[in-house]
Specification:
The structure is a single chain. The protein has 13 helices and two strands, in the order ββααααααααααααα. The chain is mainly α. The chain has a two-stranded antiparallel ribbon with strand order 1-2. It is elongated and about 75 Å long.
Length: 407
C-alpha cells in the first residue's frame, strides 16, 4: 500500500491529534457478523460551507443536445420521413440504446457518475455530435466530388476517411469537455469508458433513426446489421478516447491530456475506418468475425480488468483511512464486494427507509472518498480536494450514525 501523499485525517481531527482510544465499538449492523463498528463521531472545527456547485456545464450541454436533436428531427421529416416512419424508426433505435445503457450502468456500478452529467453526455451524442457530423460529412463528400468529379470516389472516401475523422472528433470533443470542465468526476479509465460510451450511444441512437428512415425499404436487414450485430460499434470506437483521457486523469502531469487525447482519438478513428472500410469494400462478413468480434471480446476483458482495478483502488485507499480509525475492517470488506453492498442495503432497508438511505449514502460517500484519496496520491491534492475529503468524511460519519440508530 502506498504511503505517499497527504495522510488521512486522524479521527480526533484533521490536525492529527486524534486519540484512537476514544473510538468506541458496537456490534456489526450486518446479520451474522460480529466485527467492531465505530460509534463515536470524530469532531473537528467545521469548515465554512462551500456554495453548491452549479450545473451550468450540464445545463448548457443538455440545451445544446436538445437543440441539435430538434434540428435533426426537422431534417428527417424534411427529407420525406413521415411522422409514422420517424416514430417507428425512433422506437427501433431505442431498443439497442436501452441495451447499451444497461451495459454501461453495469460498468459504472462501483462509482456511478453524476446523473445530470451523464444526461448531458447522452444528449451531446444525440444532438450535437450527430448534427455536426451530418453537416461536415456532407461538406466533405461535396468537396471530394468537386475535386474528383466522381460520385463513387466521394462515397468511398466519405465513408472510409471523412466519417471516421468527423464523427470521432465530434464525439471525442464531448468527452474532452467533460474531462476539462468536470475533471473532479473523471477518476480513471472506467470513468472515461462510461462517458465516452454514453456519448457514443446517443450518437448511434440518432444515426440509427436516420438509417432506418432512409432505408425503410430494407428496414429488417438494416435493423439486424446495426441494432443486433453491431450495437456497440460506436461505443467501442469512442471508448478508446475515454480510456486515454482516463489515464490522463490519473497522471500527475495535468497537461498529459494534450498528447493522450490525440492518441486516443487516432485509435478511435482507425477502428472506425476499418469498420466502415469493411462495408465499403464488401469485406464486412470477413472482418466482422475475424476482427470486430475478437476486438469486442477483448474490450469486455479490458472492462472487467479495469473494474477489478477500481475495486482494488477502493480497498487500498479506504484501508488507509481504516488505519487511522475511520472504518472498521468489516466495512472495508463490505465496501469492496458487490454482494456485501447489496446485503448491507437490504439489511438497512429492512430497518426503515431512513436507514436504507443512510446505507446508500454511506457506500456512495466512502467510494467517492477512496477516489478523492487516489487523486491526492497522483499529485492532484489541492484545497478543493482537501475540502472534499473533509466533507466526505463528515458524510461517512453522519450516514453511519443514521443506519446504526435504526439498529
Amino acid at each position: 500500500m502506498s504511503s505517499s501523499g497527504p495522510s488521512p485525517f486522524a479521527p480526533g481531527g484533521p490536525d492529527g491529534r486524534g486519540d484512537h482510544e476514544t473510538i468506541g465499538y458496537r456490534p456489526s449492523p450486518v446479520p451474522g457478523q460480529h466485527a467492531p463498528q465505530l460509534a463515536a463521531a470524530p469532531q473537528w472545527p467545521q469548515p465554512a460551507r462551500r456554495r453548491t456547485a452549479t450545473l451550468v456545464v450540464e445545463v448548457v450541454g443538455i440545451a445544446l443536445g436538445l437543440a441539435g436533436a430538434v434540428w435533426l428531427l426537422a431534417v428527417i421529416l424534411g427529407q420525406g420521413g413521415g411522422v409514422g416512419a420517424t416514430v417507428l424508426a425512433g422506437f427501433l433505435a431505442l431498443l439497442p440504446l436501452v441495451g447499451v445503457l444497461a451495459a454501461i450502468a453495469w460498468v459504472d456500478r462501483w462509482e456511478p457518475e453524476p446523473r445530470w452529467l451523464l444526461l448531458a453526455a447522452l444528449l451531446w451524442g444525440v444532438g450535437v455530435s450527430t448534427a455536426v457530423s451530418l453537416i461536415l460529412n456532407e461538406a466533405f463528400a461535396f468537396y471530394v466530388m468537386g475535386a474528383t468529379g466522381s460520385s463513387l470516389v466521394a462515397s468511398v472516401l466519405g465513408t472510409v476517411v471523412g466519417a471516421p475523422l468527423v464523427e470521432e472528433t465530434a464525439k471525442g470533443l464531448g468527452v474532452l469537455l467533460i474531462f476539462l470542465l468536470r475533471r473532479r468526476y473523471f477518476d480513471g479509465p472506467v470513468d472515461g469508458i462510461v462517458y465516452a460510451a454514453v456519448v457514443a450511444a446517443g450518437f448511434a441512437f440518432t444515426e440509427n433513426i436516420l438509417y432506418f428512415v432512409q432505408y425503410s425499404d430494407v428496414l429488417t436487414e438494416v435493423f439486424v446489421a446495426r441494432a443486433v450485430q453491431s450495437p456497440f460499434a460506436h461505443v467501442t470506437f469512442t471508448a478508446v478516447i475515454g480510456i486515454a483521457l482516463g489515464f490522463a486523469s490519473r497522471s500527475a502531469d495535468r497537461h498529459s491530456w494534450l498528447w493522450l487525447f490525440p492518441v486516443g482519438w487516432l485509435g478511435a478513428v482507425m477502428l472506425h475506418a476499418v469498420w466502415n472500410g469493411s462495408a465499403a469494400l464488401a469485406l464486412y462478413d470477413v472482418l466482422y468475425w475475424l476482427f470486430q468480434v475478437p476486438l469486442f471480446a477483448a474490450g469486455i476483458v479490458l472492462v472487467v480488468w479495469l473494474r477489478n482495478d477500481e475495486k482494488a483502488t477502493i480497498g487500498h485507499r479506504l484501508s488507509e483511512y481504516a488505519q487511522a480509525g475511520w472504518f472498521a475492517p468489516y466495512e472495508i470488506r463490505m465496501l469492496t464486494s458487490m454482494g456485501g453492498r447489496r446485503a448491507a442495503r437490504r439489511w438497512a432497508a429492512s430497518r426503515g427507509a431512513g436507514a436504507g438511505r443512510a446505507m446508500k449514502d454511506f457506500q456512495r460517500s466512502a467510494t467517492t472518498l477512496a477516489f478523492a484519496r487516489q487523486r491526492s496520491l497522483t499529485g492532484r491534492y489541492d484545497l478543493r480536494t482537501h475540502a472534499d475529503e473533509r466533507d466526505l468524511l463528515d458524510a461517512v460519519v453522519r450516514s453511519r450514525a443514521g443506519f446504526l440508530a435504526a439498529a
